[in-house]
Amino acid sequence: MRNSQMARMMQTIRRTGIPLLCLIAATSRASAQTGQSPGSGAASLLSVSVGIPAAEGETARELYTIGVQWTQLKPGRLSADFAVGTMPRLLANNVLGIGLRGGAALPLEITQGVYLLPSAGVSVIAGAGGGGADGAYGPHLGVAGVLLGQNNLGLRAGATWNRFREARNGVWLLELGVAFRR
Fold it and tell me: What is the pLDDT of residues 77-109, one digit of tens each?
């Protein structure tokens, strides 16, 4: 890995990590002010999804993603929202690619077991292989719908728009997966 690439990656981590830590602190502070710790009384939603990226009106099915999402479920209140994923095709080509999303969601309970999750935050993508490493970051906006059964197991479908700083246009990630409320 060249020094300029390492410096650019560290700069990306600094620029996204600091706002992300501030967001986590703000979410924790809001929970503390209401007397409710993030883990007590607030359910969480864990999902495993498959996604397809799209840019400039074209989908890239060969770059499908596998990811895990975690969202605090505090209906009507800002809640922590995180995701991590990878692209298996990159791994097959000896490239480690990872995507991270962190931010806040505002869970809206439409009816029992049906949620709408608008979200916003920061996305980071990074890759490393034999030719070096690189990364990009930027804001994201998204929305997901969740349908849970009586056993707290269900489906999650979402769309997230990412505006990576180095890209000319936004990149969409369309995801469908299995969700579990705990």
Answer: 999 999 999 999 998 889 999 999 999 999 999
With a cut of 50, say whether residue 35 has pLDDT above it. Answer: no
Length of the chain: 182
What is the pLDDT confidence band of residue 8, given thresholds at 50, 70 and 90? Answer: low
In the chain, what is the straight-line distance between the N-terminal and C-terminal CA atoms, in Å?
41
Q: Which CATH number fits domain 3-181: 2.40.160.20, 2.60.40.10, 2.80.10.50, 1.10.150.450?
A: 2.40.160.20
- 176 vs 42, more confident: 176
Phi/psi of residue 93, nearest 5 degrees: -100, 20
The residue extents of the domains of the chain are 3-181
Distance CA 10, CA 165 (A): 15
Taking residue 117's Cβ as centre, other Cβ atoms within 10 Å add up to: 21
The tokens 């020094």 sit on which residue?
A: 3
